[in-house]
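Intended use. Records such as the Phosphatase PAP2 family protein entry shown here are meant for training and evaluating sequence-to-structure methods. They are not intended to support clinical decisions.
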Amino acid sequence: MSTPGLRTVDPARHTSWRSRRLDPDHSLGLRLTLAASAAFLVLVPFALLALLVLGAWAPLHRLDGAITDVLHGYAVDHPVWVTLMRVWSEVFAPLPLRAVALLVVIWLLRRGARRLAFWAATTLVVGGLFGPLLKLLVGRDRPDLLDPVARAAGYSFPSGHALNATLAAGVLLLVFLPYAGRGVWRVVLWVAAVLVTVLTGVSRVALGVHFASDVLGGWLLGVAVIAATTAAFTSWRAHTGLRPVHPAREGVAPEIERHPDDT
């Protein structure tokens, strides 16, 4: 029985912001906080790397130069290797990857998974726009080689190929993980995503059109964008009452395999 003249105090209204963020039962609590923190922690090394590139930090410059010289020397002596790297770089260039991603977005829309399609499109568009903008802001020139085996236009940091390969591989992985089950196909998907991301970046350094730090910057930025948009998508899920998910194990929308309209 309540005492007249006294208001009932709702304990939830007086919990601190930090307590709510770290509360596992809160819809926007622990899981969102950890995901957003992961995105921030990935963005920090990218920002540090960008500052080192802008400041022309001597140790980074020497390391980039040494890696470029070794790979370029190997490329000059091995034309077959150059051909393989060119083919890989063209097949997994930003434009073909965006075309594949567009087909997946259309497929998701036809299945009724509108929110998942929006997440995929947003991740690719936002991440893709960051690349050219940062290239202009940093203004780093590409490697200047006496006997180049390939050429590319524009500025160098971050690598657009590495960025877009990371974005596309990450989006496709998180969309199709629900179809992989718990067996070997999950491993196959992860291996394929990592191979596409890594080899696409390596091909750009092997062809002498990017420094190693350009590729590293593209990878870091791509992972940060995926982590941020995934955090936003999983928070929306919690807010609408859908069960929490572990994106790395089951994708961002496990329901798509059975109930695409829920995503």
